[in-house]
């Protein structure tokens, strides 16, 4: 069995949804289909949740009504069969009744998670109505019955496997199984989610749980590209990447894949394919245990980075200084991305500034602290790039008139990271496209 995950834009228009059904028809093996919410829906639900949290029920109601209209139009365009349409209409009404009820009860974080779950519940149920209409035999496997996370919000792969196998056992005769991405139950049994973009994570967890032949991530771009197509003129899709390379790229800014979705596939050796619904025959990107070749494959950028420099006279020849620094970040559950040290100072970066004030306050006990906001990490990724001839010369030879704030090299053989002020990001990506790939 294979896993096929379709993102928001792949289900976001009635004709696209129909197109997915036609793709399923062409499969030679059974498929477990993971769907995101229709594009724009989760954002709208986040806004509605925020409106209710701020006790602005009037705006919440307006936003609920606008979303409701969107779904009414959607099913009218998707379905022609009277019975399928009636079924879809009832589903839409049921979910919007729920949102209206929510308006009347007091807000809580748990309730907010229920609001956010409506998108995937709606998209999968509506898709199933379309499968009814075209006479496809399928089963809908509710993610809330098998996808669970523990107290630390980590997925429980063991029990996911057991529950999912039981469900699949009940539907052995079906070639199409449909489930929701993103949503899950937490340790308290409440509805929860795998964070924004988490449908990719669902797909790879499910693929690992059922030992799928492949985990296909279908989007609206033909694979992972060597650079950001929004910023440079010419890019090309990368045919093959190792899990390590893909993890670096996903983490450092390639938006196409949720970074957490790499580990389940890597651990259970499930190949991942990034494919384009609009060009189903294009090769896309294959991610496996092997890197097809050495050398630089891609550059990616991650925005909204904070650089923190801690300078201390006492660091000179002292031991235990870094431990004290790291303990502060551990205390505030804030991951560090890049780090560089000199004899008297250490610079590091974080992307989560939620506890920045407290962190800085505690770091000030260790030395002088400087924070630079609005930085960007530009990361150069490839297999064993440390062994690539003259890589450093080529990399720095590509860069003109851009002040580099930090460089991190050697942490892994697959990555070199540069930190620059955000205003230099586009220029740096363009210069690297020219210098590293010979493209404009
Ligand atoms: N619908 C969720 C989101 O927009 C999950 C996903 O699409 O991956 O974040
Ligand atoms: Mg996504």
Helix content bin: 40-55%
Work out the number of β strands.
16
Mean pLDDT: 95
Order of helices and strands: EHHEHHHHEHEEEHEEHHEEEHEEHEHEEH
Envelope shape: globular
Q: Which spans of ≥5 residues are poorly predicted at pLDDT below 50?
A: none
Count of separate DSSP helical elements:
14
Bound molecules: aspartic acid, magnesium ion
* Multimer state: single chain
Main sheet characteristics: 8 strands, mixed
Notable characteristics:
alpha/beta, 8-stranded mixed β-sheet, 14 helices, binds aspartic acid, binds magnesium ion, aspartate kinase activity, Aspartokinase, transferase, EC 2.7.2.4, Aspartate_kinase_CS
State the gist of this model.
Helix content is 41%, strand content 21%. It has 440 residues and is an alpha/beta fold. The strands form three sheets. It has an eight-stranded mixed sheet, sandwiched between helices.
Account of the 3D structure:
It is built from 14 helices and 16 strands. An 8-stranded mixed β-sheet has the order 3-4-2-1-7-9-10-8, with helices on both faces. A 6-stranded antiparallel β-sheet has the order 12-13-11-14-16-15. A two-stranded antiparallel sheet has the order 5-6. The protein has 440 residues and is an alpha/beta fold. The protein starts with a strand and ends with a helix. Helix content is 41%, strand content 21%. The structure holds aspartic acid (ASP) and magnesium ion. The site of magnesium ion has 3 residues, from loops. Keywords: Amino-acid biosynthesis, ATP-binding, Kinase, Nucleotide-binding, Transferase. Residues 2-276 form the Aspartate/glutamate/uridylate kinase domain. Belongs to the aspartokinase family.
């Amino acid at each position: 069995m294979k896993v096929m995950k379709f993102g928001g834009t792949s289900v976001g228009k009635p004709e696209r949804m129909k197109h997915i059904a036609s793709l399923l028809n062409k499969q030679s093996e059974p498929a477990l289909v993971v769907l995101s919410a229709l594009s724009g829906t989760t954002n709208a639900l986040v806004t509605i949740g925020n409106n209710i949290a701020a006790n602005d029920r009037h705006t919440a109601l307006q936003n609920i009504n606008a979303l409701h209209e969107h779904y009414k139009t959607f099913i009218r365009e998707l379905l022609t069969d009277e019975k399928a349409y009636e079924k879809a209409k009832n589903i839409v009404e049921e979910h919007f009744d729920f949102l209206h009820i929510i308006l009347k009860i007091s807000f809580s974080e748990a309730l907010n998670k229920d609001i956010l779950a409506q998108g995937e519940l709606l998209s999968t149920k509506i898709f199933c109505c379309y499968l009814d209409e075209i006479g496809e035999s399928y089963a809908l496997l509710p993610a809330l019955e098998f996808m669970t996370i523990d107290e630390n919000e980590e997925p429980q792969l063991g029990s996911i496997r057991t529950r999912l196998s039981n469900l699949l056992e009940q539907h052995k005769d079906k070639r199409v199984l449909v489930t929701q991405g993103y949503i899950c139950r937490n340790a308290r049994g409440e509805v929860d989610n795998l964070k924004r973009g988490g449908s990719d994570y669902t797909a790879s967890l499910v693929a690992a749980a059922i030992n799928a032949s492949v985990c296909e991530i279908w989007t609206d771009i033909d694979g992972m590209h060597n650079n950001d197509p929004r910023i440079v003129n010419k890019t090309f899709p990368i045919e093959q990447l190792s899990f390590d390379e893909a993890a670096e790229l996903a983490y450092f800014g390639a938006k196409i894949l949720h970074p957490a979705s790499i580990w389940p596939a890597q651990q259970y050796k499930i190949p991942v394919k990034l494919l384009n619904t609009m060009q189903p025959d294009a090769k896309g990107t294959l991610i496996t245990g092997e890197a097809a070749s050495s050398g630089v494959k891609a550059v990616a950028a991650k925005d909204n980075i904070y650089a923190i420099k801690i300078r201390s006279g006492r660091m000179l020849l002292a031991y235990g200084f870094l431990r004290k620094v790291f303990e502060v970040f551990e205390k505030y559950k804030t991951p560090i991305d890049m780090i560089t040290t000199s004899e008297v100072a250490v610079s590091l970066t974080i992307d989560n500034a939620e506890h920045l004030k407290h962190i800085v306050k505690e770091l000030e006990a260790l030395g002088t602290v400087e924070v630079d906001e609005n930085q960007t990490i530009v990361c150069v990724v490839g297999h064993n790039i440390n062994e690539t001839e003259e890589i450093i010369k080529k990399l720095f030879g590509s860069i003109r008139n851009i002040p580099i704030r930090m460089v991190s090299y050697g942490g892994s053989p697959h990555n070199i990271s540069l930190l620059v002020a955000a205003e230099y990001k586009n220029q740096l990506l363009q210069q690297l496209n020219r210098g590293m790939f010979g493209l404009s």
